[in-house]
Amino acid sequence: MAQRARSRLSREESQERTRTALLDSAREQIATHGVAAASVRSISEAAGFSQGAFYSNFASKEAMLLEVMAEHMRDEAARFGAAVEKALLEAGPNGAGLAAVEALRGYLHTLNTDGNWPMLTIELQLYANRSESFAAQFNTSKTLFQSEIAKTLTHLFTRLKLRPALDPLKLAIGFIALSNGYAVQGNTAAPEGVGEIMFTFLDALIRSSQRTEG
Question: Which residue numbers delimit the DNA-binding region (predicted)?
Answer without folding.
Answer: 39-58
